[in-house]
Specification:
This protein is mostly helical and 305 residues long. It has helices at residues 85-99, 112-120, 124-143, 147-169, 177-206, 211-221, 223-241, 248-280, 289-304; strands spanning 8-12, 15-19, 38-40, 46-48, 66-67, 70-71. It has 2 domains: 66-117, no CATH class; 126-289, Up-down Bundle (Multidrug efflux transporter AcrB transmembrane fold). The protein has 9 helices and 6 strands. The strands form 3 sheets. The chain has a two-stranded antiparallel sheet with strand order 1-2.
């Protein structure tokens, strides 16, 4: 009678119209007029609504927001420049712990990027170690040795990661979920430089070169492909460093980590990996001459046929 909802439809001259039972507009202008509305009482008699109900004014929210099936109040804010998301959330949690009454069931939860950082960001160290272990096992199977993967990872990964984190400490970027993804990607990219040096040095040792001579020649010979790999990675990811507009923070974080980590990691890999190789790598056995003689006789047999 007051809300204006229709209860049926009727048709006149082929057109459908709504049936809306409603009190006259002049009789529903003020809340006090509600008490004058008559309703059906006992024995079918009409009684005023004021005899069975009273009016009370109160303030209620227009809608009740819920999050994780609980009543919730959503708070949104903009992080100031040069402040990481982790620092902002830590400050929010500290202030909430001081303001919210303890033992009353109040809790803080997150959505969007903040939720992603709190849930997945705490797992970064485990993910990083797991990726390093996986790469180590793959390299161990490839080189059939447990020393060579250690040389590759110890000589390239720590320096590349440290070089990338320097730019985070200098506030060029923040340590967020996107920069953490960039660091994990960096482990696989920078390991290729060490693989090129170690694999060729092992081959030179098997052909009769000494360990020191082999690693020096391997570093100089593999310099060109190492620089080409680094240049391709840096040039491919450098546009992310210069990205602007919506979502630029995520692209900048990944780009800065990969570009700075690859440049610094490559420079140190050329010097650190050979040094660790000389100290840790085992001396390879020279391939017997009988194998070489057999390889030389293959063309002779072909000519005889």
């Amino acid at each position: 009678m007051l809300g204006g909802n229709y209860v049926n439809r009727f048709s006149i001259q082929g057109r459908s119209y709504k049936v809306i039972p409603q009190v006259k507009r002049s009789e529903r202008l003020t809340p006090a007029q509600l008490s004058e509305i008559h309703i059906t009482g006992p024995d079918g008699k009409l009684v005023p609504l004021s005899t069975v109900a009273t009016l009370r004014t109160s303030t209620e929210p227009r809608e009740l927001k819920r999050f994780q099936q609980l009543n919730a109040v959503r708070i949104q804010g903009v992080i100031p420049p040069n402040v990481s998301l982790d620092d902002a959330l830590t400050w929010l949690e500290t202030e909430a712990a001081a303001l919210l009454p303890p033992g009353q069931g109040y809790a803080i939860d997150y959505a969007g990027e903040s939720r992603q950082l709190r849930i997945e960001g705490s797992k970064f160290l485990g993910t990083f170690l797991l990726s390093a272990i996986l790469i180590y096992l793959v390299l161990a199977a490839q080189f059939e040795s447990f020393r060579d993967p250690f040389i590759i990872l110890a000589g390239s990964v720590p320096l590349a990661v440290a070089g990338a984190l320097v730019f985070s400490f200098l506030q060029f970027t923040t340590l967020n979920i996107y920069s953490q993804v960039g660091l994990i990607t960096l482990v696989g990219l920078v390991s290729k430089n060490g693989i090129l040096i170690v694999q060729f040095a092992n081959h030179l040792q098997e052909t009769g070169s000494k360990k020191l001579e082999a690693v020096i020649e391997a570093a100089s010979t593999r310099l060109r492909p190492i620089l080409m790999t680094t240049a391709a990675t840096v040039v491919g990811h450098f546009p992310l460093v210069l990205a602007t507009g919506p979502g630029a923070g995520a692209r900048n974080s990944i780009g800065i980590m990969l570009v700075s980590g690859m440049v610094i990691g490559t420079v140190f890999t050329l010097f650190v990996v050979p040094s660790i190789y000389v100290l840790v790598a085992r001396t390879r056995v020279t391939v017997p001459n009988a194998v070489r003689t057999r390889e030389k006789r293959v063309p002779e047999l072909a000519e005889a046929v």
